[in-house]
Amino acid sequence: MTEPDDSAKPLPSVGREAPSPLALPPGKLRRIGLVALGVALLIAVAGIVDREINERAVARWTAEQAVPSVSVIVPQRGGSAGPLVLPGDIKAWYEAPIYARVSGYLQQWYFDFGAHVTRGQVLATIETPDLDAQLAAAQADLDAARAKVNVAKAAMDYAQTTYVRWRDSPKGVVSVQETEEKKADYETARASYDAAVAGVRSDEGAVDRLQVLEQFKRIVAPFDGVVTLRNTDRGALINAGSGAGGGSAPQLFRIADVHEMRVFVQVPQAMSGGITPGMSADLYLPQYPERLFKAVVATTARAIDPVSRTLLVELHADNPDGVLQPGTYTEVHFKLRSNPDVLSIPATALIFQQAGMQVAVIGPHDRAELRPVTLGRNFGADVEVLKGLSPSDRVINSPPDSLQDGEQVNVVNPLPPNGGELASTRGAAARSDRGDPAAVRASASDAREAVH
């Protein structure tokens, strides 16, 4: 077979391109470009709009966050009837330090600290050799003085007899001069006798004084009580005197009468108005956390200490079992009466600034108003407000430190129309359960749930 000759085929013309089967008409290409441009414009517009929306949302969120959110409470009527808790000191009904009245050496002691003693019981005895020697010398002087009295009396009797005989002699037997001399001798003898008698009395006084001091060799209990201190031992040198008035004599014993105790409390001036004699109080001791001791206000100092600005209050507490001990620290819970004309708010609502004590209340259009207040008694969790608030005010609780007067706030717990009654109910429940912290927390929780 003969292969075809390629030279017989027609050659393509030079400079002319053959048409491609995939090529699009120019009009269709123009329409596609316009569509792509429109899509790009739509995407750009959508991005700009979305960005604007996001910016507005961020600005709105920022503005909302700039307004502080606060919770409000309503002041409670009647102040707080809960206990006023103050520190107190328990002291014995009677307490006396025992010092030596005479000097010497301690011979023996008979009761140690903690022992119960009765009035007149001998606590210790003292050997007093110096005092014994002084008593013996004084007794000897007294005996000598009494002997002198006898001699003086004999001389006086003789002079008196002579003078009487000369005085009653017939006239002319003795001279007047001799009679006057005998009279002078009698008067001199009588004066000597009187001086001797006075010397006896002086010596008797010295002996009596030393005999009284001899009785102080026995140190006795001044009243029934407990020995709370023994500060001496056998053979110790004892110096007479006391530590009072700059003395340096040591305290040998201390006796305390603990059948009933005295409790002393310093009540601040702002709280002293509610303390009156006869009102009851409760005592809590750290060493007896489960026990409650009763006390009654006996008296007050009726004067404010100008240094501490407090009123000294004395209470009396029975101590039949001797549990209360002198020198003990105690918490005194006074049961104060509520005042219906006084309002009470939580202490967390107070604002401490340079302008003084203030609270923040909700004003018109939910704007904060800072008001100065005058406080009364402070009960720890609650404080009394004497001036500056009304029962209808909505007080901001725990206000932000940066809160300014007139600043817009967001109230997160708007009170219902009976918010005042609810707050009073909550306050009464808290006051009735003030002695039980768990009950106080439960009452507050129930009130919050009711508000919301």
Give a structural overview:
This protein has 452 residues and is an alpha+beta fold. Among the domains are: 69-82 and 340-451, conserved putative lor/sdh protein from methanococcus maripaludis s2 fold; 130-216, Helix hairpin bin (Helix Hairpins); 261-332, Elongation Factor Tu (Ef-tu), domain 3 (Beta Barrel), CATH 2.40.30.170. Helices cover 33% and strands 31% of the residues. It has helices at residues 26-66, 129-168, 176-215, 419-432, 437-451; strands at residues 69-73, 76-77, 83-98, 104-109, 116-117, 122-127, 218-220, 225-230, 237-238, 253-268, 280-285, 288-304, 310-318, 329-335, 343-346, 350-353, 356-362, 368-372, 374-378, 382-387, 395-397, 410-411. The strands form five sheets. A six-stranded antiparallel barrel has the order 3-10-13-12-11-14. A hairpin with a 5-residue loop joins strand 17 (356-362) and strand 18 (368-372). Helix 2 (129-168) runs antiparallel to helix 3 (176-215) and helix 4 runs antiparallel to helix 5. The N and C termini lie far apart (108 Å).
